Amino acid sequence: MGPKYQSIADDLRRRVAAGEFAAGRLLPSESELGGAYAASRVTVRRALEQLREEGLVDARQGFGWFVPAPAVDQSLGRLGTIEAQLAESGRRSERQVLDFGFVRAPAAVRAVLGADRVLEVRRRNLVDGVPLARVTVWCPADLASHLSLADVERATFHELLDVDLAGATQTIRADALGEEDAEVLGVPAGSPALVCERVTLAVGGAAVLLSEHVFPGHLTRFVVELASVDRSVAPSGLRLVR
Fold first, then answer.
1. Which of 7, 131, 155, 179 would you label with 85, given CA atoms 20 to 30 Å apart?
2. CB 173 within 8 A of CB 143
3. CATH number of 4-66: 3.10.20.30, 3.90.1150.10, 3.30.559.30, 1.10.10.10?
4. All structural domains of the chain with their residue ranges
5. For residue 234, is pLDDT > 60?
6. What is the pLDDT of residue 65?
7. What is the 3-state secondary structure (H, E, C) of the chain?
8. What is the dotted CATH code of the domain comprising 72-223?
9. Measured between alpha carbons, how far apart are the two ends of the chain, in Å?
10. What is the tens place of the pLDDT at every residue in 171-210?
């Protein structure tokens, strides 16, 4: 009979191959695995390190161990939706609406959209069955009065609004996931996240959508293409936030 860590590695390898742990999903914690296999955390970690050397699992600070999945690359050079970019890359996308309602605009939303009442839609986006983002969208009620829950389940606001869009400003920051978003995304609270706030403008300059996108840090990359060399140290379109 071989070493204990080897038998654990063999069993985890079998479970990964059987699809018990889908790509992008977190494995049980080292402590939980230690309890399940009646082994110390040192032994469990040695088994996991062996699987990492084989490319079957990986780990990130704040996340724990997971089965690697291709990161979702999102271009910052054009206005688009998560669904459109996933479709272009051949990935399977799904949306789950969590909340839908016409509400009094929070102060920060009112300051951007200039509307007292807004349609607020909170949803979860999945890629290949794995939670990719929590998205909340706010739209002035007068522009969204014709929309239903069924509408926002089947299509994006870009498709649903009878408005010609001119562009958007997107701000990206790093953060740690709170309890609610961690539950929605299926990762531990405090995990690293990328938070994107986008203000979408209509032709004429009026802000017609405000959205917040929260992504688990291990599944998403934002890509900026630099078309030319500039004397500035910062790429065009990027600026520091003090």
1. 179
2. no
3. 1.10.10.10
4. 4-66, 72-223
5. no
6. 86
7. CCCHHHHHHHHHHHHHHCCCCCCCCECCCHHHHHHHHCCCHHHHHHHHHHHHHCCCCEEECCCEEECCCCCEEEECCCCCCHHHHHHHCCCCEEEEEEEEEEEECCHHHHHHHCCCEEEEEEEEEEECCEEEEEEEEEEEHHHHCCCCHHHHHHCCHHHHCCCCEEEEEEEEEEEECCHHHHHHHCCCCCCEEEEEEEEEEECCCCEEEEEEEEEECCCEEEECCCCCCCCCCCCCCCCCCC
8. 3.40.1410.10
9. 60
10. 999 898 899 999 999 888 888 888 999 999 999 999 999 9
Which tokens sit at 8? Answer: 């654990």
- Arithmetic mean of pLDDT, 130-139: 94
**What would the two tokens of residue 158 be?**
């870009």
How big is the chain, counted in residues?
242
Q: What is the mean pLDDT of residues 20-36?
A: 84
- Pair 215, 177: CB distance under 8 Å: no
Lowest pLDDT segment from 54-68, 146-160, 216-230: 216-230
Residue 120 in tokens: 């607020």
pLDDT at 43 > cutoff 70: yes
Burial of 72 (0-12, 13-18, 19+ CB in 10 A): buried
